[in-house]
Amino acid sequence: MRAISVSVGPLASAANNNIATSQTLAAAGALNLNGTLASGGVATLDTPRRILIHSTGNDTSLTWTIVGTNWAGNAISETIAGANNGDAAPVLDYLTVTSITGNKAAAANVYVGTTTIAASPWVRFDEWAMPAAGAQFQVTGTANFTFQASNDDPNSLINSVSPYSMVWDSSISPAVGVTANMTITMPSAPLWGRVLLNSGTGSVKGVFTQYYQTAV
After folding, report:
1. CA–CA gap between residue 152 and residue 129 (Å, rounded)
2. Could you tell me the domains of the chain?
3. What is the SS3 string spanning 104-128?
4. Whose CB among 35, 75, 199, 201 lies 3.0–4.6 Å from 19's, allowing a Cys bridge?
5. Residues 6 or more apart from 210 whose CB is under 8 A from it?
6. pLDDT on residue 215
7. Alpha-carbon distance 21 to 53, whole Å?
């Protein structure tokens, strides 16, 4: 395949209540998206990134459903369990959040905000090409990143996996917790790859290539 480039970052400063300020949920229903990022009931983030739902009580028996859009503006959603005096962490990256609903009353106040974590758009490798693949990572500013890969496929007609249920491998050495430019070679390409920005105020660009056999 031709080289494909994706980038992630920089991110605006995170805030724990810029999507929804502290509020109660007296019964099953939607939170009021009224943080500084929200307008007309929709929160728009600076770039697709992770969010946190913070419970000040024990909401482990409560189920949250988050609905929004991704990098491409496509609708995404996921369902997660609430936390006990802590943060419930969705795994998808949201460009917008259009609703957050609970299936029952919350134990105490709840608020929602952004994190310092974000993933790049996904890169789809070519299973018909040679198995070897390469990746080059370029860091601008201060950033800590990890290359993630997955062989789950939400587009599969036989074994489809929901995007929020995909398993991403974060142990592809040496591209784990990296803070500088680097290049890796993979003997076998996964179906999907992405760059996860773990922290920092900078950005990371990933350039991915996969090799074709040349006829002789």
Report:
1. 18
2. 4-9+119-210 (2.60.120), 20-116 (2.60.120)
3. CCCCCCEEEEECCCEECCCEECCCC
4. 35
5. 1, 125, 126, 129, 130, 132, 133, 134, 189
6. 46
7. 11
The series of mean pLDDT values per 10 residues for the chain, 216 residues long, is: 91 97 98 98 97 98 98 96 98 98 98 98 90 94 98 91 94 95 94 97 96 56
Task: Say which amino acid occupies 13.
Answer: S
Sequence-separated contacts (24+) of 78-85 with Cβ below 8 Å: 78/162, 78/163, 78/164, 79/164, 80/53, 82/53, 82/55, 82/106, 83/53, 83/54, 83/55, 83/59, 84/55, 84/57, 84/58, 84/59, 84/60, 85/55, 85/56, 85/57, 85/58
